[in-house]
Amino acid sequence: MTVRTRIAPSPTGDPHVGTAYMALFNWAFARQQGGQFVLRIEDTDQARSTAESETAIYEALSWLGLTWDEGPDVGGPHGPYRQSERREIYAKYVAELLEAGHAFVCFCTKERLDALRAEQLAAKQTTRYDGHCLNLSPEDVQKRIAAGEEHVIRMVVPAEGNCVFHDRLRGEISMPWAQSDMQVLVKADGMPTYHLAVVVDDHLMGITHILRGEEWLNSVPKHVLLHQYFGWEMPELVHLPLLRNPDQSKLSKRKNPTSVTYYRDEGYLPEALLNYLGLMGWSMPDEREQFSKEDMVAAFDIDRISTGGPIFDQTKLAWLNGQYLRNLDVDEFAARVGAWMVNEAQLSRLIPLVQERVERLSDLVPLVDYLLGARKALEPEDFVHKTLVREDVVKVIHHTLAELDQLRSWQRDDLFALCQSLAGALDMKFRDFLFPLFVALSGRAVALPLFDSLVFLGADLSRARLRDALEALNVSGKERKRLDKAYADVARALAAARSD
Ligand code: GLU
What we know:
Strand content: 5-15%
Bound molecules: glutamic acid
Shape: globular
Structural class: mainly alpha
Strand order of the largest sheet: 3-4-7
Number of strands: 9
Distance between the termini: 60 Å
Order of helices and strands: EHEHHEHHEEEEHEHEHHHHHHHHHHHH
Number of helices: 19
Largest sheet: 3 strands, antiparallel
Radius of gyration: 26 Å
């Protein structure tokens, strides 16, 4: 048997270190076994998927030095590798399920489902679909579809008994069917859901081993059932532990930068980041902490993966990166600095920002220090302002960050419009509104134009600095909850204003 592994990221948002982590383990296993590693793009959520995010995934993985044998960009014998291009394929399998009575058409409205859910919650029951449309007559179904009534397709799930399956790291697992919902397989827009698409694609693409995050364990019964319905063999399952913040919570960008691009732009070396990810839940047989990806391939052993939640710790990563930097010879070090930031392409982005402001070339350095390098560590005193109080400062940074987190295109005009409407919604003078953002980004009250700075730094570094500023201002968990609430009101007002 040829081992075939895959990662299946959804192109929504930044390329996540969790995706890189899964990619590394799937890649290492496939390479060691002389097999193939496939990259599939799961873009069935049309509203959230973007081409930029897909490109960023390719760039992040390539920067890390991980290569895939098949994928949307490189092609391969099992394509297309983008789920949005596989609709006819799924339709054929759904028709099979409907025909065999393993799936049914459901016309329930959102209102009915919401009411059902509320009822079940009130009765402290597991919330799940109640089978209302399970026994509609075929004629009735045809009539309603022909009349254009909105509908989804759900899978039939046994009411009783247990689903028993095997996970390579956890052994036998048994879950009651009563915990599995009659999952929607095809949405009202005709797109398959993750559960249908993942099963069909893993089978058709010949995937033999699924190494993915443990958050998918609860979905396995649905996948097992679909495999049974189709008469297919289940691939081997290996659910890897989730990366965690130092406080043990699931790794989140609130507490840790999670975008691979952030680590690249901060000047981490790809081999150091990859090495660090290799230490997450895995170790070399000799427990050595520094190893290359080739070393990892040579020594890789699935059974050495531990299921305890590995901590993604910035301090440890920085230490490891330092080890790698110190081991470079001078020429290599210089080449890395060039590849990182100090190169002509970056300089030509910077010059237009400073040319009008310098008298000597050496004036350039203090002007751009925060754009090329880390900005100084912030203190609450840095935010003292003649009219703004701490509460205003915190609100501006928090709400701007919340808005930026949803911004799709990082363009000057969009950033400007975003800040202007937020300042309006907060009823603040634009100049005052911008002050906390200047400090958070540059560490100074006066710096190069804010919007140019945001564009130069890019989304990841900018957002990380705003997040760090909230830390520096000692925003507690409780205060954050209050801010989230206040922001929800502002966001509603902004949305209403936009639709006017
Ligand atoms: N699209 C899913 C994700 O991004 C894939 C999960 C899987 O590997 O099955 O997490």
